[in-house]
Amino acid sequence: MTLYFSEVTGVIHGPMHFAQDERAEQIQQWLEEETFRSRCVDEETNAWLAHVEISTSCGVVLYETRNLDDYPVCDGDTLTVIVVPADDLSELEAEEQAEERRLQALLAA
């Protein structure tokens, strides 16, 4: 699977090659840490400012930890990547991040 991402400004990222069985989580992580890093991570503090969400042209949001095969993604589909500010994270996502930080702190101790 080859993906191209075009920003509203017209900047195009890609081609990015992914296997059909690639996990949506891997693509999301790649977008956050590479393509849109300047918008997602504060370089000075390493704090997460935002995360990306990916949805298909039929409106299905590609969730983390699922294979692309689990979604109706077809050749020629338009995927929309939205950079969501950290302030807009849902309560569940905020709780998940807090739990992850607690686990990291325990492992570091």
Question: By helix and strand content, what is the structural category?
Answer: alpha+beta
Oligomeric assembly: single chain
Give the overall average pLDDT.
77
Count of alpha/pi helices: 3
Largest sheet: 3 strands, antiparallel
Strand content: 15-25%
How much is the radius of gyration in Å? 15 Å
Head-to-tail CA distance between termini: 42 Å
Description:
By secondary structure, the protein is of the alpha+beta class. It has helices at residues 24-35, 37-40, 91-108; strands at 2-6, 12-17, 50-55, 61-62, 80-85. The longest helix is centred in the C-terminal third of the chain and has 18 residues, at 91-108. It is globular and about 45 Å long.
List the helices and strands and how they pair.
Elements: E1 2-6, E2 12-17, H1 24-35, H2 37-40, E3 50-55, E4 61-62, E5 80-85, H3 91-108
Antiparallel strand pairs: 1-2, 3-4, 3-5
Question: Top keywords for this entry?
Answer:
23% strand; alpha+beta; two-stranded antiparallel ribbon; 109 residues; three-stranded antiparallel beta sheet
Write a compact overview of the structure shown.
The chain has helices at 24-35, 37-40, 91-108; strands at 2-6, 12-17, 50-55, 61-62, 80-85.
